[in-house]
Structure prediction request, 178 residues.
Amino acid sequence: MIKKLGLNAAFAAGTDLSGLRYDPYMAYNFVIEIDGLLTGNFSEVTGLDSEIQTEEYQEGGVNEYTHKFPTRVVYPPLVLSHGLTDIDTLWNWYESATEGKVKFKNGTIMLLDRKRLPVTWWNFKKAYPVKWSGPQFNAANDSQVAIERVELVHQGISKPAIAKGLAAARAGAQMAGF
Prediction:
């Protein structure tokens, strides 16, 4: 029966029968930690991406397709945006890098549920800032928050086993009626 309906239809049918809901998490509810410190409330994070690059090989006599072999994984920079405050942690880190004192830092991006508890997270490693953007000033629009952006290059994103296990445990607890 599941093969005919598809996995999404099977979950929907199971939700209807059990009364359980598996609503998606809200993208605005997140927090960022860098080297063990919560670095402020961010309004946006972009660049949480990963891509496997491939190399093409055209086999002689095979005209229906081209072989694609995986080569390496690439990660775009993470861009962290937040309202400008008196806390200069990110600026100081960037300024240090401009002076040739690059400090590699590890961090975590945590997605939170409605109760502000972590539901999953992604770790990034050996990051350092390569670009800083200050706020855009416009006297005609006095209701805008002054936003600072810092672009971080890094050496990879991972989702720890404990984060994967937590998601499985939460799903199991929901199914058990907790």
The chain has one domain: 25-176. The chain is about 25% helix and 35% strand.
